[in-house]
């Protein structure tokens, strides 16, 4: 009876851990935003430290280059912030599976399986917004370039699973999946 209860168990596990993806700081955010780099004016990390659910980067650490003429990629108006100068949130997920095989008859078996995705329920946030402006005015005559600050700079309002629209697996909150399988 003890052998029947303890025999036939299997476990498996996958641990994924990686550093955050690079974040390119640009004048405007979005896929079709203006990919011109701003200038540094201070420390890019907020004084309160990193908190991915809220603001993690300091938008006031950047400014639009005063001589920016509105022409994307014009080398004479590029800011001094390097490409991919910030790092997004790290990723950590531990998935675990446990299976119990029951012998039915010769050559036939029943398997009960439990899969737990993100067993520690660790939040895995998406890459934050890297655009410092929602709109800008290029330099004109003696007036320097200016911009309307992006209130979402340095924030990520979603997890990786929300960003990728995935329902199961990588980047989701803890999920449990139960299954019974007949093998013959």
Question: What is the element layout, followed by pairings?
Answer:
Elements (H helix, E strand, L loop, with lengths): L1 H5 L2 E10 L3 E2 L2 E3 L10 E2 L21 E2 L22 E2 L3 E15 L2 E10 L13 E7 L8 E4 L10 H5 L10 E9 L1
Parallel strand pairs: 3-9
Antiparallel strand pairs: 1-7, 2-6, 4-5, 7-8, 8-11, 9-10
Describe the structure.
By secondary structure, this protein is mostly beta strands. The longest helix has 5 residues. 24% of the residues are buried. Helices cover 5% and strands 36% of the residues. β9 and β10 form a beta hairpin. The model has no long low-confidence stretch (mean pLDDT 83). The chain is built from two helices and eleven strands.
The largest sheet, given as strand count, sense and whether it forms a barrel, is:
4 strands, antiparallel
CA radius of gyration is 25 Å
Q: Give the terminus-to-terminus CA distance.
A: 24 Å
Order of helices and strands: HEEEEEEEEEEHE
Care to count the β-strands? 11
Walk across the major sheet and give the strand order.
1-7-8-11
Question: Structural class of the helices, strands and pairings?
Answer: mainly beta
* Oligomer type: single chain
Helix content: under 10%
Helical run tally: 2
Assign an overall shape. Answer: rod-shaped
Percentage of β-strand residues: 35-45%
- Mean pLDDT, nearest integer? 83
List segments where confidence is low: pLDDT < 50 over at least 5 consecutive residues: none
């Amino acid at each position: 009876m003890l052998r029947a209860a303890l025999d036939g168990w299997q476990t498996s596990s996958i641990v994924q851990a990686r550093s955050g993806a690079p974040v390119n700081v640009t004048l405007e955010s979005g896929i079709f935003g203006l990919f011109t780099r701003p200038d540094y004016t201070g420390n890019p990390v907020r004084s309160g430290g990193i908190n991915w659910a809220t603001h993690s980067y300091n938008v006031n650490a950047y400014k639009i280059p005063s001589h920016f003429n509105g022409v994307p990629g014009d080398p004479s108006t590029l800011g001094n912030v390097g490409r991919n100068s910030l790092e997004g949130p790290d990723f950590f997920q531990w998935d675990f599976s446990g299976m119990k095989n029951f012998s039915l008859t010769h050559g036939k078996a029943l398997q009960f399986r439990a899969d737990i995705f993100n067993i520690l329920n660790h939040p895995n946030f998406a890459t934050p917004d890297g655009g410092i402006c929602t709109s800008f005015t290029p330099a004109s005559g003696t007036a320097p370039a200016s911009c309307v600050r992006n209130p979402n700079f340095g924030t990520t309002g979603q997890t990786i699973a929300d960003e990728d629209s995935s329902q199961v697996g990588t980047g989701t909150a803890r999920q449990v999946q139960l299954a019974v399988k007949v093998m013959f």
